[in-house]
């Protein structure tokens, strides 16, 4: 066993003896409570550092139940209602929403703050043509057009905290009182929050770290009448509005936001949407307000002699840890849930805090810890995904969350965590908390840039789905790859060009989204800048529908760089002749068979016969490379995460950068195993990313070869 430390253990009341045993076994130096648990005096007396979860904007129903007009609000959009005949049309506002969570704002003037849309015509229905019945929560449109669809965007109060609601339903908390959230934008509630926090600090002298879970505004998480998630967006700012905030915004920015600026045709300003100026302005307005009040909490925490830690989840909206100025908040640490390598890097790479901590899975809840299940399988799978990313972006601490009493009932899981904790500490000791060496610098180019570092292609935290997996896999592959990663925006390129230390740029995503860029590619300055950069020796990798917008007879605006274009049925009369696929190539050297390129991108083709076509299916290009001046373009249809696809992307990056001669050194012959080198520490390691025994050969920089055999989930360290 390694020296104890770097581990935060969840606990609960009436569990001191087992807490002491597991703290010893897992090497915990800190204990925390989770949502729904408390630490009693016996647990506090164990002599560990104490983390106390603190919820600034919920868990005080005695206050907010007397001020229900100061709960957070959200713009909701009704489902489309068809006017089957002309004349009056009634729309039930709450037909699609869960009344225990959401309640229409019946006090604010609906004709000032709401909006009715004729979706068929794309027009706003004038206020004088509709009315609201607060007794029935219905809107009646007086002269609806027959066979037109209508929606109503309306303000609603959030009367049950969404995360506490999720935990309540997951754990079947029965008659437990629903926790009502509150909005600190209202001065009276804001002062209540700070007065309550100061009193809490006085009443909790044994707390060492205040674990803010989180601050003021919940990401978008709305439920339907059957208690199912209806709208979920981990980046969503929908739950941040109030009439006063909207009025203040108008005074500050010189224009009023519409309800449509939030409901966004039913998209709720998803991060996949190309951000509009109104959306960016609201984020800026909200972030300014949130950060000012976070700073107050942090300063008061420090004045009480305690550390301030932010949980990157729940009410994190408005903190924006990757926007400039986050370091000014003075937070000591950020902790977040680790679902995979991508989310690990999302936490680890946050600037401006003294340390970061990962909360690993599984969470100690009954949905996983139940009879007949083996939670150790998920624990090891989660660890393997996170470990390869920790080598590239280390977190200083680890821990778990939930009910320790549940986890203690599973001896195999308990032993598994003991091994993971020891390995985590050993990795930190061997590397000194340093990052492994990166051999290339790779930049992901999209509309959001650094603001959404490691957050691209995401809807719900660490939960890719069919539509996103072809792109999210890029981040997961990069999270543990031997490259340095950054995120840049189209505005960055337009304002500053391409930084000279960038070797390869990746543009990836479906057409007309924030990640591929949409009409940003109609700007001749952007296209010309990147063409010139590639011709001078840069590498450009496009995935899916990169640079896509129909403009001047072309869909992929950098088709000449990539060597690939997509037919969108405008040039079918123009014949296309491409090359035959190559049997062997540097990029595909480790890719047996056809490969997995995810969701098909149909009707792609090589623009001429000089393009090197590496994989195709049904006439559609899946993988190709193209020389462009002194640089190169590479096209990939999609990259769901797998060991083979991570290796494919790695080889594509080295090829695009004309760095093939540097590839063999410190690479593994087995794609299931990866190598991380720490020159300053005089060591390197090889990790087995599977639960099965693996063997591999590692070629050193000087030409020597090491044979390495690893058990399932194993790691081996060697001296340089």
From TrEMBL:
Residue ranges annotated for the Lacto-N-biose phosphorylase central domain, each copy included: 442-661
UniProt keywords, alphabetically: Glycosyltransferase, Transferase
Top class in the EC scheme: transferase
Gene3D superfamilies assigned to the protein according to its UniProt record, in alphabetical order: 3.40.50.880, Glycosidases, Golgi alpha-mannosidase II, Immunoglobulins
Enzyme Commission numbers on file: 2.4.1.211
Start and end residues of each Lacto-N-biose phosphorylase C-terminal domain: 666-717
Pfam families per record: Lact_bio_phlase (PF09508), LBP_C (PF17386), LBP_M (PF17385)
GO biological process entries: carbohydrate metabolic process
Residue ranges occupied by any Lacto-N-biose phosphorylase-like N-terminal TIM barrel domain in the UniProt entry: 5-436
GO molecular function terms listed in the Swiss-Prot or TrEMBL record: 1,3-beta-galactosyl-N-acetylhexosamine phosphorylase activity; 1,4-alpha-oligoglucan phosphorylase activity
Name of protein: Lacto-N-biose phosphorylase
């Amino acid at each position: 066993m390694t020296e104890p430390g770097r581990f935060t253990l969840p606990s609960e009341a009436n569990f001191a003896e087992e807490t002491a045993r597991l703290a010893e076994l897992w090497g915990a130096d800190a204990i925390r409570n989770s949502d729904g648990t408390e630490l009693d005096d016996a647990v506090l007396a164990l002599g560990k550092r104490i983390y106390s979860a603190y919820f600034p904007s919920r868990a005080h129903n005695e206050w907010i139940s007397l001020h229900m007009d100061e709960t957070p609000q959200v713009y909701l959009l009704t489902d489309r209602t068809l006017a089957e005949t002309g004349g009056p049309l009634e729309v039930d506002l709450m037909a699609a929403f869960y009344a225990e969570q959401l309640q229409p704002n019946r006090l604010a003037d609906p004709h000032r703050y709401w909006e009715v849309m004729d979706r068929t015509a794309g027009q706003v229905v004038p206020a004088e043509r509709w009315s609201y019945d607060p007794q029935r929560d219905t809107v009646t449109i007086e002269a609806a057009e027959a066979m037109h669809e209508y929606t109503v965007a309306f303000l609603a109060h959030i009367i049950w905290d969404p995360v506490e609601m999720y935990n309540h339903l997951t754990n079947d908390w029965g008659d437990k009182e629903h926790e009502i959230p509150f909005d600190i934008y209202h001065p009276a509630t804001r002062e209540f929050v700070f007065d309550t926090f100061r009193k809490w600090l006085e009443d909790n002298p044994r707390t060492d770290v205040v674990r803010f879970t989180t601050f003021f505004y919940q990401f978008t998480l709305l439920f339907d009448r059957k208690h199912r998630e209806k709208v979920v967006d981990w980046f969503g700012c929908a739950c941040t509005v109030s009439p006063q905030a909207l009025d203040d915004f108008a005074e500050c920015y010189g224009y009023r936001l519409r309800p449509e600026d939030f409901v966004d045709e039913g998209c709720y300003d998803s991060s996949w949407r190309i951000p509009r100026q109104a959306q960016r302005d609201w984020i800026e307005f909200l972030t300014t307000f949130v950060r000012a009040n976070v700073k107050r909490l942090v300063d008061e925490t420090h004045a009480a002699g305690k550390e301030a830690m932010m949980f990157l989840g729940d009410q994190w909206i408005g903190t924006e840890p990757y926007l400039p100025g986050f370091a000014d908040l003075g937070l000591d640490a950020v902790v977040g849930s680790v679902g995979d390598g991508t989310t690990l890097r999302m936490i680890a790479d946050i600037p401006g805090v003294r340390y970061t901590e990962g909360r690993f899975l599984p969470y100690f809840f009954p949905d996983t810890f139940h009879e007949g299940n083996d939670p150790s399988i998920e624990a090891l799978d989660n660890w393997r995904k996170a470990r390869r990313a920790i080598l590239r972006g280390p977190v200083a601490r680890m821990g778990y969350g939930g009910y320790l009493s549940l986890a203690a009932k599973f001896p195999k899981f308990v032993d598994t965590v003991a091994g993971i904790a020891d390995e985590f500490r050993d990795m930190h000791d061997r590397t000194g908390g340093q990052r492994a060496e990166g051999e290339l610098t790779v930049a992901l180019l999209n509309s959001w840039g650094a603001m959404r570092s490691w957050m691209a292609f995401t809807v719900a935290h660490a939960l890719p789905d069919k539509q996103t997996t072809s792109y999210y896999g890029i981040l997961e592959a990069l999270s543990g790859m031997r490259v340095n990663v950054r995120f840049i925006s189209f505005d960055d390129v337009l304002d500053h060009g391409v930084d000279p230390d960038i070797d390869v740029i990746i543009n990836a995503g479906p057409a007309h989204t924030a990640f591929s860029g949409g009409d940003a590619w109609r700007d001749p300055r952007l296209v010309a800048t990147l063409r010139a950069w590639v011709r001078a020796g840069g590498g450009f990798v496009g995935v899916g529908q990169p640079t896509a917008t129909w403009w001047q007879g072309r869909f992929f605006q950098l088709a000449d760089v990539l060597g690939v274009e997509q037919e969108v049925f405008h040039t079918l009369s123009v014949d296309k002749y491409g090359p035959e696929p190559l049997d062997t190539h540097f990029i595909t050297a480790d890719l047996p068979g056809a490969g997995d390129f995810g969701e098909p991108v149909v009707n792609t083709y090589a623009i001429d016969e000089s393009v090197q076509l590496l994989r195709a299916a049904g006439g559609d290009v899946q993988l190709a490379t193209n020389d462009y001046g002194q640089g190169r373009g590479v096209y990939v249809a999609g990259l769901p995460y797998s060991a083979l696809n991570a290796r494919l992307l790695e080889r594509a990056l080295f090829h695009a950068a004309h760095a093939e001669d540097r590839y063999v050194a410190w690479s593994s012959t087995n794609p299931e195993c990866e190598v991380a080198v720490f020159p300053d520490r005089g060591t390197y390691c090889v990790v087995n990313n599977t639960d099965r025994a693996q063997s591999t050969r590692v070629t050193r920089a000087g030409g020597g070869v090491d044979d390495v055999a690893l058990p399932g989930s194993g790691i081996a360290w060697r001296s340089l």
